[in-house]
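Sat 14:20. Reprocessing the chain from the morning session after the first attempt stalled halfway. Input below, unchanged.
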Amino acid sequence: AAGLAPALRAGGRSDAGAGMSRLRPLLVVAEVALALVLLVGAGLMLRSFAELQSVDPGFRTDQTLSFRISTPPSRYPEIDQVRALHTTLFERLEALPGVEAVAAANTLFLQRLPNMGPVTIEGQPPPIEGAPTISVTNDLVSAEFFSAMEIPLLAGRGFSPGDVTDGLQVVIVNETFARRLLPGRDPVGHRFTRGDPAAEDAVWQTIIGVVADTRRAGLTEPIRPEAYRPFSQVTPRSVEVLVQTTLPPLTLVSQVRELVRELDPNMAVAELRTVDAALSDALATQRFVMLLLSGFAGLALTLAAVGLYGVLAFLVTQRRREIGLRMAIGAGRHEVVTMILFQSLRYVIPGVLLGVVVALGLTRVLQGQLHGISPIDPVTFIGVATTLVAVALLASLVPAWRAARTDPMEALRDE
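Finished this time. C-alpha cells:
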C-alpha cells in the first residue's frame, strides 16, 4: 500500500501550470461567495416583502376606486360653490349601479406630509422654541369617511350635520394622538390649537372622537398622530374621492369620467385607480430592489454552479489515472462519487464562509428597505447557505458520476 502512494500522487498531478491550477478554485470560491451575498440580499427582500403584504393598513382597500378632482378659485370663487359641487357629485356617484358608499378626503395617503405641525393642548404649556415637538396631521374628511373605509370609532362620536363652520370647531383624533399627547386621559372634550395659542385668531379645536390607527403614511412608516376635521367646517378645493362598489372597481371608470364631465366639462379626473393599486404603488421601491437582487442572485448562482462544474470536470480529467488506480485496488463507484463530492465541498465551504462574512457587513445597507426582519436574519442566512451547498452538490453530480464510470484498465492503458 505504501508503494502505491507515489503512484497515486503522480496520477493526481496536473499537466497544467501550477498558477492556473490554483486560480480556478479561487475563482469558484469567489463566485460562491458573491452568489451567497446576493442570495442573502434577495432573501431578505423577499421575506420583508412578504411581511409587508401581510400588514393591515387599518382601512378598507378592496373594491374601492379613487380619483382626485380640483376646484380652482378662478371657476369656483366661493367655498359654497365647492361644497355644492361636492354634494352633487357624491349624490350622483352613490346613485350609480353597484356603488355601496362614497367618501372623500383631502388625501388618502400621507406620503406628501400634508399640513403637519405641532399643536398645543389646552391647559398644557406651549412647546418651547427649539425643543422637540410632536407633529400632527391636519386631515380633512367627509362625514362618511370612517364608516366607508371601515376605520373603527373607539370613543366619542363621528361628524354630524350639526358640525358647521360657525359652530364648535370639532376634530377626531387617532389612537396615537391620544396616547402621545394625552396619555392616561380621556381625549374626548379636550381642546388644542395649532400655532401660537395666545394669538387672537387662534382656532381651538375640540376632540369629539377617537378612531383606530391607520397606516396611511405607508406600510413601512411609523404611525403618526392624526387629527381629522370635517368637510362641513373646512372644505378643501382638491379632494380624493373614494367609491366603494360591489362590482369590479375599474368597470366604473367611464361612468365616473362621464359624470364629472356633466358637472364641469373643464374639470380633470386625476389619479384614477383602485386603492389596492395605490397601495401596491407605495411598495414599488421595495419590489424593484427585490426583483433586481433576485435577478443578480440567480445569475450569480448559475455562474457559481457552472464554474464548480467546470473545475470538477477538469479535475476528473486530470485525475483520471488516480481514479483508475483507486478503482483497480478495490474502490467502489460510490467511494469515487463521495471523493468528488467532498472535493467540491473544499471549494464551496470556504466560499460560503467568506460570503457570510461579507453579507453580514453589506446587508446593513438594506436596513432602510426591510420591514419586520433583521438584516442579519438567521433564517435567511441558514436557508441561503443550505440552498447554495445543495446546488453546488447537484452541479458536482455529473463530474462525480463520470468519474465513477471510469474503466480502470482503460485509464491505466491511456497513461
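Residues 113 and 126 are 23 Å apart (CA to CA).
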